[in-house]
């Protein structure tokens, strides 16, 4: 594809269109938004063969670029994954529309009635890598929450994202909503990203979804507010009283189900007392499953374990690699996670409720789990239908960002001739 020449002009037109669409979406009825999402879901399914063909073209491009197996897994779509996209669109469609929700309602002695009501953010810019399903997820969630969106997918997913975007536009047309409500940047040129980050007149918030390099670039250069989605350096601490069968199942699932997602376990912390009772069962199982275990201290002496280097802790591998360490109690695990974690998702496996409560209380990750795989760190698994990303910052939205998290609020104040003395 030949990239467009005047990128600033292209982005300005996208921004102007989005701003006009956002003004209309702010009061669009829930029924019209529902119809648009159902129409989009139907069109994605109808066009599944064309989407798979577009995806094959992108996969060939990605292989030529030398993308890792984990990134290729993120990129690849088959009929099962397309069914997941369709199901996600339908789930978002059936959710309650958050726009107009009364968050709080109170009366003042002055005679004023004050309501705090949910309202769209306006125009959202989403910059993402590899995963073409984000095109559908982000488009759906922004539409549901009354926001216009400008999508900039990764260069490696360009054709797939374009095919999915056409389906979203079909849904908008059928529901008589502005086509500019969901726009896709029509070029692979990286200059488009730089433009988006400075479009303060047209974009209200940027959501980056990708690796450390992308998020770091966005945080350094953005003049538009950012919902930060940092690395998924997810830890699992297997406590002294953990059920060994449960721990084994959770650890294997968290690391091997899909290594390329941000909810994959990157570091295993094993309590010394658990290790004394049950030995190397967890590291042995990981190695048997094909995981390269990089262990510290006593674990480095085990057969099949690679001695860990300092940089292996605090590393997002996104691959069949896992750091591992023995720790002396829950507080030592907490200290390690505070030092090396990314405030994304961390889990404890234990039968000791007090230890779990302590873990929950003392850590401040966006998502904390007890006796569950970190692979559940996903808006769909939280009942949101989909997510635009997982925010690890503390401002506005945290954790999976669904439709409700893409709203702000305004105050509606009513009186009966009230005047201030």
Give a structural overview.
With 421 residues, the protein is α/β, with parallel strands linked by helices. It has two domains: 7-227 and 401-414, Aldehyde Dehydrogenase, Chain A, domain 1 (3-Layer(aba) Sandwich); 234-376, 3-Layer(aba) Sandwich (Aldehyde Dehydrogenase, Chain A, domain 2), CATH 3.40.309. The protein is built from 14 helices and 16 strands. The chain has helices spanning 7-25, 30-46, 48-65, 69-75, 79-94, 133-144, 158-174, 191-196, 212-221, 244-256, 272-278, 281-288, 330-340, 353-362, and strands at 102-107, 113-120, 123-128, 148-152, 182-184, 205-209, 234-238, 265-271, 292-295, 306-307, 321-327, 345-349, 367-370, 390-391, 399-400, 407-414. The strands form four sheets. A seven-stranded parallel beta sheet has the order 10-9-11-8-7-12-13, with helices on both faces. Strands 5-4-3-6 form a four-stranded parallel beta sheet, sandwiched between helices. Strand 12, helix 14 and strand 13 form a beta-alpha-beta unit. Helix 3 (48-65) runs antiparallel to helix 7 (158-174) and helix 5 (79-94) packs parallel to helix 6. The protein is globular and about 70 Å long. The model has no long low-confidence stretch (mean pLDDT 93).
Name the features:
single chain; 421 residues; alpha/beta; Aldehyde Dehydrogenase, Chain A, domain 1; Aldehyde Dehydrogenase, Chain A, domain 2; 2 domains; 7-stranded parallel sheet; 4-stranded parallel sheet; 14 helices; 19% strand; globular
């Amino acid at each position: 594809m030949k990239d467009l020449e005047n990128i600033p002009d292209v982005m300005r037109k996208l921004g102007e269109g989005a701003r006009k669409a956002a003004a209309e979406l702010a009061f669009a009825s829930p029924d019209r938004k529902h119809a648009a999402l159902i129409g989009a879901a139907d069109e994605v399914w109808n066009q599944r063969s064309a989407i798979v063909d577009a995806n094959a073209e992108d996969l060939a491009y990605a292989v030529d670029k030398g993308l890792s197996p984990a990134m290729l897994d993120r990129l690849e779509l088959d009929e099962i994954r397309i069914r997941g996209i369709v199901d996600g669109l339908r789930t978002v469609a059936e959710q309650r529309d958050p726009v107009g929700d009364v968050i709080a309602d109170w009366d003042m002695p002055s005679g004023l009635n004050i309501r705090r009501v949910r309202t769209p953010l306006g125009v959202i810019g989403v910059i993402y890598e590899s995963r073409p399903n984000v095109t559908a997820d982000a488009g759906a969630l922004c539409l549901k929450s009354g926001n216009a969106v400008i999508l900039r997918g990764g260069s490696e997913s360009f054709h797939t994202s374009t095919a999915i975007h056409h389906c979203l536009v079909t849904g908008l047309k059928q529901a008589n909503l502005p086509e500019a409500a969901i726009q896709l940047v029509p070029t692979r040129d990286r200059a488009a990203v730089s433009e988006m980050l400075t479009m303060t007149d047209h974009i209200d918030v940027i959501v980056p979804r990708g690796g450390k390099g992308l998020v770091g670039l966005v945080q350094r250069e953005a003049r538009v507010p950012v919902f930060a989605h940092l690395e998924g350096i997810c830890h699992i601490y297997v406590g002294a009283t953990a059920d060994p069968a449960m721990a084994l199942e959770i650890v294997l699932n968290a690391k091997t189900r899909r290594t390329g997602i941000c909810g994959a376990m990157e570091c295993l912390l094993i309590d010394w007392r658990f290790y004394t009772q049950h030995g190397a069962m967890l590291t042995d199982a990981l190695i048997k499953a094909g995981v390269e275990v990089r262990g510290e201290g006593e674990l480095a002496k085990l057969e099949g374990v690679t001695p860990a280097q300092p940089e292996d802790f605090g590393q997002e591998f996104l691959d069949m690699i896992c750091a591992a360490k023995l720790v002396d109690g829950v507080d030592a695990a907490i200290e390690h996670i505070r030092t090396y974690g990314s405030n994304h998702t961390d889990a404890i496996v234990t039968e000791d409720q007090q230890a779990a409560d302590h873990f929950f209380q003392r850590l401040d990750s966006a998502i904390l789990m007890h006796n569950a795989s970190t692979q559940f760190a996903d808006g769909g698994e939280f009942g949101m239908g989909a997510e635009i990303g997982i925010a690890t910052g503390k401002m506005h939205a945290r954790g999976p960002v669904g439709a409700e998290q893409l709203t702000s609020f305004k105050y509606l104040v009513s009186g009966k001739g009230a005047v201030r003395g």
